[in-house]
Design goal:
35% helix, alpha/beta
């Protein structure tokens, strides 16, 4: 397809836009920084102008475009043709503005790249907001190029949105859309010009995931493009996530990296992230090996210097390299940097123990230092490629102890590089002779000198090289500066990169006391700050054998235990010996088998000692001493040290669990545990708070730099670091939700009330973070600080500080990216952030008005004695993840560490936690007795009064660390809880709750769209549903569009529907919000940290996954997962939706919960905690029935251990997709099972409100909507019962649902009624709502014409007879009570049975002497007899196929008969005389001189011989008068042409009389119904195209006349000449055999072919007495018909 040039498209869009606003004299300008683009744009305008030239001087003209009569002149600014200088353009500008001469009706467009006033003064910028080339405006124009409903429409919109953001961010012009334009125009998804890799999988992503995918794609493209440009020869280092083979293939050999699909890069990265080959050991037979990695980076730890010292005299060295992973091949081995040795050495690869690989090398050795490299290459994963730099030397030749931790071997250079701090190196163990090195490259004899000093050389040169000589051996050295690493993880147990070296003796790190450094793998690691202080403290405790320090600066020495607790003294003494012998520390141990045995013995001893302490007494000084073990105090600081028994117990249990997994399942999931989960593994959860002498209680918090140390923080010092992030998030949310208030930065100040914030440091820093992010876009902010006492706070400090440098330190602006912009940020804060300070007003005095309030609950916390074993538990995984439990008790909200229901016996950490927690207070509080109780925190609700004042003053109030449960807020009826979060911290409760009194706003937001037949939803009820299901939904609703709100309503409705399908099972089901649990797409507007269960943290970056609902089932010791994906709106891509549901289950089951790993046990426990939080919310809001929860709640603590199994449902779908389809083609619930075992349920959108409004007290939704039995989940162990019984019962229920037709006395007697005329057509097959036809109501039915369609046996006639019966029996409800006449043309004698005649009081006529005359004259039309004769002859001609001459002859015969009867066409006074009859015409025909027996003869003879019409005038009546009540003309038994002729003649007469009778009465919206015509089996008749039927259908409503056409096929309504369907508004369609797309389009007003096919399929599958009812508004409902036999039964009851 030829694509229009972009600049031409630009020009055309400009012309289209400007034509609507242009005026003579207007000047427009567009700045294009790119001269090439500017020229192209001008040339596009020039080509559009064509031959249009404006003469401005002799032989000088300019092109122009005619825009609504105004000549638009495009000019280009520049130095070369066709451009003009600024002087000439300014002259043109003035001429155009002057509007005289040739410039009278001109306008000017200047295309330029200048800031000159002469060009831009007095011109309109067409790239300014609101103009066509403003990027946002132009993107909307581009959106019209997207084909609606196409496969790539969502993708195209996302690309457009993405490109718009790029254009705005980069300050680009509309030319920034050029690449995207070509893509949209030709539909070819080639993204290279958009700086994107092509991505075939994009079409599989939902709208929410597309943007994330595109961002990842662009980021990778830019990273790779930058690396190729800057590091073309070093791509393996620049792109470490890709293997060397991949880089060689696609960046060197093929150079096709730009054309690769994005998914190829993703697969390569994922492949490289799975490391299958991991170095275990390097060893030598008969010698010693030193190893030292190049650095602690991922690449550095695989570049290893191996120094092998052989025994003297060895001629051969056997060197072994052992790897975890058994797929090492010979082809992976490469020997380098020693050609001679490569030929002489031998090596082989073998499998060691099945799961390991071993490289065994035999190397000839001649006594001289020998270098070579062993490289592991050609692995698919670059993380599996190693480089071993090997040096072979003879032990004793050189003394190398001083270089053990600072060397790097460089075989290619034949040297050792040393990273030294000092300019001095010891080269012999003893001796005092020092070699002063003042020249490079000297040889130094080791026997002569013991030290080398190169201070002088270092001052003169950066190059320091020398060689050591020992006998005939020579060793070269190169000196570098210090190379200490800083990337060490402390404690060593949590260094996941060293996992393979943990739990072994050789894995311990050592502590260099002189340098204060850690030595690990022969690398010196520099530790600074708190990390160094804590290690130095550990070293001091070990060296002095101290168990702790007391508050009075005294020390608790080990020997103090010797007398009273010798066994405990011995246990700790062994531990100290271990540290000293190995020169290690508690934080540096690798937890080897020997160490674990020592710790285990110590803990058993400690527990036994504590258990001996008697109850109901005060503790002795020796007993109190036990509780001081492991406690470090210094001044105001108090900490549990790394040697505290509880710290040791917790980490021993963790280590044993890690090792158990490795031994049982050969896996090591701990090594890949994501940071958020790893950070939960802290001992402080086992004792979250303790008694404090001065401040009542203190919280235990791990020291960030080393979690083996635990801070004991008095409550007054507790800091909420997360408040900084919380404040920033809330500012974003509020300014986004109320964006209109802050359309420009200075338009309105955001006012904040800071209540009880004290020093307000976190609040202030949160504001700083907001300004950092927004910079110049930040709004003006004023903060009102309210506190009990006015104390200096962070706002004061900022305002009073005159030093920018001090402020940079306070605000952490001295490092990183903000260093350069620090001054700007401080100036911005000073200009846009103001504050006031107030004492909290007494009594009920109101606070100042604010947009947003931050409220901290400072209500005093009451410490109460509790029995730990009776308090609610927050323990997960047998204590490995622990925290406090919360519950409401009487008047207080209670928090405590509890062990109720927890099995503590097998877990020493839990047992010690209980003992220490119970003994802490008696050991510290004088005269306090030991009763085996711990402490709990109780918070009263007394702060409610101040909180209410905050609600009244602020639009939003965010409560920080509320210390109360959600029911505190939900019990307040006049407020709405719009957001609650537990994502900022890992504590058990909610860390922030946002509340508003703007209840009405949220109730309005939640109102569902009211549709005809929909159940109204109580917004208050829906508000509870929303809050219970997802804590962020209400907040998001403020920023959601209508589509997003519908989607959320859809999720609520869908989960309630599916919940009803599951209710019969014996499994306890809980619905979970997946988006809240897994954070699939992240929180909109909330930059929360990822959750433990996040796909992102598990290594997934792409692919479909459901983010809607997960049903979690509990039974016995098994957990079941049933995902529910919900779609709302248009009919979705069911395949993709099914893929989303299936992937959610696969991910959670296979990747997260099912594996037999320690990580999965953590996830299983955390998953249950998430479920329990959901349960509490569902109970709190009354959404879930407590009685159903017993399987979960009775064994709550067991479920939290994570020991359960994942089970599968028997004979049930793996997932469910529910689509609320808002389409005319969806009017019934449909069910479909896919081959992937996903159940697809399609529900009409009109039912959504009733689904949401359902409650547990009402009829179950599955019963109400008759969900098929096979989709109702049964008890898992129950036997299947016979289905036929259920089916039989179902049928009887259907019958009983039919509503009785109640006829009043007035209706029976014919008296009038004020009630409108309604006919019960049937009942909604889904909702069972009655469906009424209101033929007199013009607001609902513009005309009463009705089409009834259905093949034989579908119930069509039964429906029609019920319609007629009700219509005639309810005629008293007609406007003004006027009786209704109903004429039935009965082709098959369906309307002449006694039941029908008795029910309707119908009169029936056979085709014999029908008492009306087709030739009678009605009306005042001039020359009426001629019109009547012409009409009848035309009708006869169509019925019998008469020729033109025959038709004319018949017309003349009729006129002769009129003349004979004394009726003159020209004399209306004669028209009242008795009209001739068909018999008269027949006789006159026979009296002709020549009678031809042709078709005219046949037609007249049939009518005359059958004596169809009455011949005696006295027996005749007006047809209109004849149709009084129900009149049936029975046509059966006659030839079709006779039947059709009778109907046609009758309708001709009816039409004439209808016009004569005039218009019916109208009362408001109600029009009187006078007559109805029913043509049964009308297909033959309609095929004849008789004019009268079309006229009655078209004009009848004006006369109160309607028609009912009943036929077997929709196709019958369209003939060669007429489309009768166009005159019909109401349709009742039963099953038909023949149907076409065009028919569907005509009847249903549906254009989409897919929807048409769906409708055709549904029509073909309709059961008897079921139909599709299309009302006057084209609304389609599946209907269960009101059949005549049912109506008869109801009538018999009356």
């Amino acid at each position: 397809m030829s694509v229009k040039l972009y600049e031409v498209y630009l020009a055309e869009t400009f012309i289209e836009w400007v034509c609507g606003i242009i005026q003579p004299g207007e000047r427009y300008q567009f700045k294009s920084p790119d001269p090439v683009n500017a020229l192209k744009l001008w040339q596009a305008f020039d080509s559009i102008a064509g031959a249009n030239k404006l003469d401005i001087a002799p032989e000088q003209n300019l092109p122009f475009i005619d825009c609504n009569g105004v000549k638009l002149i495009p000019v280009l600014h520049g130095a070369n043709e066709p451009a003009f200088t600024e002087n000439y353009i300014s002259l043109l500008r003035d001429e155009v503005a002057g509007r005289s001469g040739n410039f009278a009706d001109t306008a000017l467009l200047i295309i330029h790249n200048s800031m000159l006033d002469t060009l831009i003064n007095s011109t309109k910028d067409v790239s300014a907001p609101g103009a066509i080339w403003y990027p946002k405006t132009f993107s909307q124009k581009l959106e019209t190029l997207i084909t609606p409903g196409s496969n790539s429409s969502e993708l195209s919109r996302c690309l457009l949105k993405d490109q718009l953001a790029t254009v705005l961010d980069e300050g680009a012009t509309v030319f920034g859309f050029s690449s995207l334009y070509r893509l949209l125009e030709d539909g070819n998804l080639d993204f290279s010009e958009l700086n994107l890799f092509k991505d075939e999988e994009l079409l599989n992503f939902s709208d929410k995931q597309l943007q994330t995918r595109l961002n990842e794609n662009r980021k990778l493209y830019r990273q790779i493009e930058d690396s190729v440009e800057r590091y073309s020869g070093q791509l393996e280092n620049a792109l470490p996530e890709f293997s060397a083979k991949f880089i060689q293939d696609h960046f060197t050999d093929k150079d096709d990296w730009r054309s690769l699909d994005f998914s190829e890069y993703q697969k390569e990265k994922e492949k490289n992230s799975e490391q299958k080959l991991l170095l275990d050991t390097v060893s030598v037979v008969n010698g010693e090996v030193w190893q030292r990695v190049k650095s602690t980076s991922k690449a550095g730890i695989r570049d290893i210097s191996v120094m092998v010292q052989s025994n003297p005299g060895d001629k051969q060295i056997e060197l072994n390299f052992v790897f975890q992973g058994n797929d090492l091949q010979d082809s992976n081995i490469k020997i380098a940097h020693n050609t001679k040795l490569k030929k002489e050495l031998s090596w082989k690869v073998s499998r060691a123990g099945g799961k390991n690989s071993r490289i065994s090398m035999l190397i000839p050795f001649y006594g001289q230092p020998c270098y070579f490299s062993l490289e592991i290459t050609n692995r698919n994963n670059s993380a599996e490629e190693y480089k071993f730099r090997v040096l072979l030397i003879e032990k004793g030749q050189f003394w190398l102890e001083d270089i053990k931790n600072c060397y790097r071997i460089e075989p290619g250079k034949g040297q050792l590089t040393l990273q030294l701090e000092d300019n001095n190196l010891r080269i012999a163990e003893s001796g005092g002779q020092t070699k002063m090195l003042d020249e490079g490259s000297e040889d130094i004899d080791c026997k002569e000198f013991s030290c080398v000093n190169f201070e002088t050389l270092a001052n003169r040169s950066d190059l320091i090289k020398f060689a050591l000589v020992s006998g005939e051996s020579r060793l070269s050295f190169n000196i570098e500066g210090p190379g200490a690493e800083e990337g060490l993880t402390l404690p060593l147990l949590f260094d996941q990169n060293r996992f393979t070296k943990l739990f072994k003796e050789e894995g311990n790190a050592t502590w260099n006391r002189l340098k204060g450094r850690v030595i690990l793998d022969n690398i010196e690691h520099k530790v600074v700050g708190v990390r160094q202080q804590l290690l130095m403290l550990e070293a001091s405790l070990v060296d002095k054998r101290l168990l702790g320090t007391r508050g009075d600066d005294s020390e608790l020495a080990l020997d103090e235990l010797l007398v009273c607790y010798p066994e405990l003294h011995s246990a700790y003494n062994q531990l100290f010996e271990y540290y000293l012998q190995r020169n290690t520390l508690p934080s540096l141990v690798a937890w080897s088998k020997d160490y674990r045995a020592l710790v285990d013995h110590l803990l058993i001893t400690f527990e036994e000692v504590l258990q001996r302490i008697g109850l109901s007494k005060t503790l002795t000084s020796d007993e109190k001493c036990l509780l001081q073990i492991g406690v470090y105090r210094s001044g105001s600081i108090e900490r549990l040290s790394s040697m505290h028994p509880l710290v040791l117990a917790y980490h021993l249990q963790l280590v044993e669990s890690i090792i158990s997994e490795s031994e049982k399942y050969d896996s090591s999931s701990f090594a890949a545990l994501p940071p958020i989960t790893r950070d939960r593994l802290v001992v402080s959860g086992l004792m979250p708070f303790v008694y404090h002498n001065e401040h009542e209680y203190a919280q235990l918090q791990p020291v960030e730099e080393n979690r083996f140390w635990i801070d004991v923080v008095p409550q007054k010092n507790v800091s909420h670091e997360y408040v900084k992030r919380l404040v920033k998030d809330k500012l974003y949310e509020f300014t986004d939700a109320y964006a209109r208030l802050f359309q420009s930065a200075e338009s309105n100040s955001l006012i904040i009330n800071a209540i009880n914030q004290g020093h307000a440091k976190e609040l202030f820093l949160g504001l700083v973070e907001y300004f950092k992010q927004e910079k110049e876009r930040a709004v003006y902010i004023h903060v009102n600080c309210y506190d009990e006492r006015l104390l200096p706070n962070m706002f004061d400090r900022f305002a009073e500080s005159g030093s920018y440098e001090q402020l940079k330190i306070d605000l952490d602006l001295n490092s990183g990216a903000w260093r350069a912009e620090a001054d700007m940020l401080i100036d911005l804060l000073r200009s846009r952030l103001t504050f006031s300070k107030f004492n909290l007003p007494a009594g009920s005095k109101e606070l100042a008005y604010a947009h947003l309030a931050f409220f901290t609950n400072t209500a005093p916390v009451d410490c109460r004695q509790i029995r730990i074993e009776d308090a609610s538990s927050g323990v997960l995984c047998h204590g490995l993840i622990a925290g406090e439990g919360t519950e409401t008790q009487e008047d207080a909200f209670f928090t405590a560490f509890g062990l109720r229901g927890v099995d503590t016996e097998p877990y020493v950490a839990l047992r010690i936690a209980k003992l220490v927690g119970s003994l802490w207070q008696p050991a510290r509080q004088s005269n306090s007795q030991y009763h085996g109780q711990g402490i709990g925190l109780a918070v009263s609700g007394n702060f409610k009064e101040l909180l209410t004042r905050s609600y009244n003053s602020a639009l939003w109030t965010t409560i920080i660390d509320p210390k109360v449960t959600l029911d505190f807020f939900t019990n307040q009826k006049d407020v709405v809880l719009i957001h609650y979060s537990d994502q900022y911290t890992s504590c058990a409760g909610y860390d922030a709750v946002t509340v508003t009194k703007q209840v009405d706003l949220f109730l309005r937001l939640l109102q569902t769209e009211k549709q005809t037949g929909q159940t109204a939803v109580d917004s208050q009820h829906l508000l509870s549903e929303f809050n219970a299901f997802n804590g962020e939904w209400l907040l998001k609703m403020l920023r959601s569009n209508e589509k997003e709100r519908k989607e959320k309503h859809g999720i609520i409705g869908a989960y309630k529907f599916v919940q009803s399908m599951l209710r019969q099972s014996d499994i306890c089901w809980i619905p979970l919000s997946v988006a809240e649990m897994i954070r699939v797409s992240g929180n909109v507007g909330l930059k929360m940290k990822e959750s433990d269960l996040s796909r992102n943290l598990q290594g997934y970056r792409q692919g479909a996954i459901s983010d809607d609902v997960l049903f979690v089932g509990f039974k016995d010791e098994s957990l079941y997962l049933l995902p529910l994906e919900v779609k709302t709106g248009a009919r979705p891509d069911y395949s993709y939706a099914g893929k989303q549901a299936r992937e959610l289950k696969r991910y959670l089951q296979q990747d997260i919960l099912e594996p037999k790993t320690l990580a999965s046990q953590f996830y299983r426990a955390l998953f249950i905690r998430q479920v329990l939080m959901q349960v509490e919310k569902l109970r709190l809001y009354g959404v879930l029935d407590n009685t159903l929860l017993s399987p979960l709640l009775k064994r709550r603590e067991w479920w939290l251990s994570g020991d359960y199994e994942i089970a599968e449902l028997n004979d049930y779908p793996d997932g469910i997709v529910v689509a609320h389809v808002d389409s005319a083609t969806c009017f019934d619930l449909t069910y479909k099972m896919t081959v992937d075992n996903i159940l697809q349920i399609e529900i009409p959108y009109s039912l959504l409100s009733s689904l949401i409004a359902s409650d547990k007290e009402g009829e179950p939704l599955a019963d109400r909507y008759k969900v098929p039995e096979k989709y109702l989940l049964k008890p898992q162990n129950a036997e299947v019962t016979d289905i036929p019984i259920a089916i039989e019962l179902q049928a009887s229920v259907l019958d009983s649902d039919i509503q009785p037709l109640k006829l009043s006395i007035a209706e029976k007697s014919g008296a009038t009624s004020d009630t409108s005329l309604t006919v019960l057509f049937g009942h909604d097959a889904v909702k069972n709502d009655a469906l009424y036809w209101e033929p007199t109501n013009t607001a609902k039915f513009m005309n009463t014409n009705t089409g009834i369609i259905g093949t034989m046996g579908t119930g069509k006639t039964q429906f029609t007879k019920a319609l007629v019966t009700q219509l005639i029996r309810k005629q008293s409800r007609n406007v003004d009570g006027k009786p209704i006449g109903l004429l039935i043309f009965d082709y098959k004698s369906d309307y002449v049975d006694d039941d029908f005649l008795n029910a309707t009081g119908a009169k029936k006529y056979k085709l014999f002497k029908l008492p009306y005359n087709p030739l009678s004259l009605f009306g005042d039309t001039p020359m009426l007899p001629i019109h009547t004769a012409g009409g009848l002859s035309e009708t006869m001609a169509k019925a019998y196929g008469l020729g033109h001459k025959q038709q004319l002859k018949l017309e003349n015969l009729i006129l002769e008969c009129y003349d004979a009867a004394g009726i003159s066409p020209e004399d209306p006074s004669t028209w009242s005389k008795t009209a001739p009859t068909i018999e008269d015409v027949w006789l006159r025909f026979l009296n002709q001189e020549k009678v031809e027996e042709d078709s005219l003869y046949a037609a007249l003879s049939k009518l005359a011989r059958y004596k169809i019409f009455e011949t005696i005038p006295e027996n005749m009546t007006s047809l209109y008068d004849l149709i009084d009540g129900v009149t049936v003309i029975e046509l059966a038994g006659y030839p079709p042409e006779v039947q059709n002729l009778v109907v046609a003649l009758t309708l001709d007469l009816f039409y004439a009389q209808m016009q004569k009778r005039g218009k019916p009465m109208v009362q408001g919206e109600y029009r009187q119904l006078t007559k109805m015509i029913l043509v049964d089996e009308a297909d033959n008749f309609m095929r004849q195209d008789f004019a009268s039927l079309r006229k009655i259908l078209k004009e009848g409503r004006e006369y109160g006349v309607g028609a009912i056409l009943s036929t077997q096929e929709i196709t019958h309504f369209k003939t060669g000449e007429n489309n009768y369907a166009s005159y019909i508004l109401t349709w009742v369609i039963h099953r038909v055999s023949e149907i076409k797309n065009a028919d569907i389009k005509a009847v249903f007003n549906v254009d989409d072919k897919g929807d048409q096919e769906l409708l055709m399929g549904q029509i073909r599958q309709l059961d008897k007495h079921y139909s599709l009812y299309i009302d006057g508004n084209k609304r389609v409902v599946k209907m269960h018909d009101m059949a005549f036999w049912k109506l008869l039964d109801k009538l018999m009851e009356l």
